[in-house]
Amino acid sequence: MRLRFGNLTPSPIRIKLPFPFILQFPIIPLIAFYLRSFCVNLRKFIFRYRFFLYLCRDMITIENIRKSFGDLEVLKGINLHIDKGEVVSIVGPSGAGKTTLLQIIGTLDRPDAGKVIVDGIDTSQLSSKKLSDFRNQHLGFVFQFHQLLPEFTALENIMIPAFIAGKSQKEARQRAKELLEFMGLSERAGHKPNELSGGEKQRVAVARALMNHPAVILADEPSGSLDTKNKEELHQLFFDLRDKMGQTFVIVTHDEGLAAITDRTIHLRDGMIEDDGTAKEPIVEEEEVSDAETGRL
Questions:
Q1: pLDDT at 137
Q2: pTM of the model
Q3: What is the pLDDT of residue 290?
Q4: Candidates 3.40.50.720, 3.20.20.190, 3.30.70.1290, 3.40.50.300; correct CATH number of 54-275?
């Protein structure tokens, strides 16, 4: 530092470091590098772990569901778990509570007690408005009769759930065309329901149920009004959708042929689950072997 006596204002102080400052502390960039690498790997682990949990979690959890109509108790403490990607059938005699259970799973009716969790969402905590949105975005419905609107074409009927969800016409039309192609009905897109066969109408109804990428499709006697050929084609369609799209199905049916080929059959009787269809270990009884057979005296 130098001072000029002719001017009492000191000149600026200049400090010159022999090396760049950061090089004097080489541990700092090293720590920063490993910290960044750790954070990146941690994010990847968390994403994969959450995705794994999503694949492994129950798609539907039913806890102690009870439902009465007046003095008649229709469901008496139903507990049930259905996995993602399962095709499950519910069977039982008339009056066993099959349709009532399906309506409660589909939030079309509320239970008197208990709760239903679908795709990680506790439906008992939703308001009426949110339940309506939930049904539109997370559930698909297929009934015994197609319930297609007669004044609209097959393509337009399929697009209706997308319009309710607020999607654009372009997006809805593209998705509907893809579903019609998957169903093998591209050439029938412009036909109205009265111009379609029974099997075609039901496939259009399935396409409509798939419109908003639902977590679960609930079907109530979906093949009850079809002949043998169309019935078999519809049943095969359910499994194609499960294999190719990971779709979960819950089907109420009296059709023994359909129940026999589903992943699991739940037997309902008098408002209670008689058999939930889970595999049981076979019991092998040891046979008594005589001394003569073993060669012993």
A1: 87
A2: 0.70
A3: 42
A4: 3.40.50.300
